[in-house]
Amino acid sequence: MELHMFASLPLTALRAFESASRLLSFKAAAEELSVTPTAISHQVRALEDWLGVALFERLPRQVRLTEGGERLFRSLHGALLEVAQSVDTLRPQRSGSSLTLSTTAAFAALWLVPRLGRFYAQHPDINVRLDTHCEVIDLHQDASVDLVLRYSLDDYPNLYGLCLFDESFGVYGSPEQVALAARRTPTLISVHWYNSKLYAHGWHAWCAKSGENWLNPPPAIREYDEEHYALQAAIAGQGLVLASNILVSQSVASGVLVPYRSEIQVDGAGYSALCVPGRERHPPVRAFFAWLREEAQRCGLTPRSAQIA
């Protein structure tokens, strides 16, 4: 029964469909598979005829997956990925493994990179490549990225994930600036985020919780686009920064920043490591997930849950 079922599967058409779905382009799929766009179109049409359902909406200059196409793509992409990874584990390892990771520049600079030495000490044969562009990557569409470290209030039901830790925001500054803040209103350092709902009212929330009257009248505020710039400004003594307890941890540990009224914290979002289901079994990805669990435990922070389905 199983042999007959596998023998009847149109594997060439399924591979053409997976490529066209991931790239959302028959032309790009043709280039990837070294065939003509017409061949991709014929393969996809034959698959639709075999299934009896439409997989794509053909639009002017583009294609879009139907609901059935989305469902097939998710299961097929994961299955082909698992087959590719199983085959890869049988091939001789010539020059070690690589892992492509997408995250924000601030998280990479302030949390990840300072700790990566411990990962390399455990896994000297795995090379980690960082992608720190701002665009949110669709892992189902971009097979070049193995996993993402994402900061968000959202859930990701279609991805395998590990919740690393939840975040809170507190106020930090150089020892001199923290001492001065007890006697006068300090200059405030803030971050202008593209996703404003994650940070926009942070100083107001912190001042309301602490009872500090720093915002009335409005004080001098220095604003930066990235957290690591804001922290560097605070380290240089330019004022007090409202900062993530995660991203500020290295600076506090080294003593260049100290908390001001450490008992006052406002809630942030959460950090999660995410990948396409099935990819977590790929040896470099599995090793990185295990290392991230160790580092999260080392931080002593409790996430909302241990794992996302």
Automatic annotation (TrEMBL):
InterPro entries on file: LysR-type_TF_proteobact-type, LysR_HTH_N, LysR_subst-bd, WH-like_DNA-bd_sf, WH_DNA-bd_sf
Keyword Transcription listed: yes
Pfam families: HTH_1, LysR_substrate
Domain of life (superkingdom): Bacteria
Keyword DNA-binding: yes
Ranges of residues in domain HTH lysR-type: 9-66
UniProt keyword list: DNA-binding, Transcription, Transcription regulation
Family membership: Belongs to the LysR transcriptional regulatory family.
Name the UniProt record assigns to this protein: LysR substrate-binding domain-containing protein
